[in-house]
Amino acid sequence: MDEIEITINKIAQDLIDINSGIRWFQAQDSSEKRKIIRTLNLFILQSHPRPDEIDAAVEDSGLKKTFTPCVLIKKKPIKEALFQIESLPENEWVKAFTLGINIFCQSDSRRRETDCKNGCYHEWHRLADL
User: Could you say which residues of the chain have pLDDT below 70?
Assistant: First the structure.
């Protein structure tokens, strides 16, 4: 796993608080921000968020429901929404990351509590051991 993958998973597992994670994202240059959003979107797809988790993530994010990433994620199929969010202009990226990391926190939490409840071999679920 690279630094981006580790950091996103640490945020999802509350090993890094979400506000610190957002500051980490904001501190990156444009190229890194694009990579982070792309990686986060892949993780979101792999975690199969449920509609109720998306609703909770929009609420928990503190973003206005009328912000473009929030509208897209609620109105479009997940794969299409994430593709469109990834294509947003740079001035939308902090909102996109904030929403995305909240979605991933919700869905990855559920998967750790269900699919991986009795232990798993996912290296990204053993970050506290690093």
Answer: 112, 115-130
Report pLDDT for 98: 97
User: In whole angstroms, what is the distance from residue 60 CA to residue 57 CA?
Assistant: 5
**Amino acid at site 66:** T
d(C-alpha 102, C-alpha 85), whole Å? 14
| Residue matched to tokens 């679920």 | 125
Tell me the residue type at 12: A
Q: Which residue has the tokens 């109720």?
A: 52
Q: Which helix (H) or strand (E) holds 20?
A: helix 18-26
d(CA 15, CA 82): 25
Task: Match 């869905």 to its residue by tokens.
Answer: 107
Domain spans, the chain: 3-129
State residue 117's pLDDT score: 65
pLDDT value of residue 114: 76
Residue 75, token pair as written in the block: 């109105």
| Three-state DSSP state, 51 | helix
pTM: 0.88
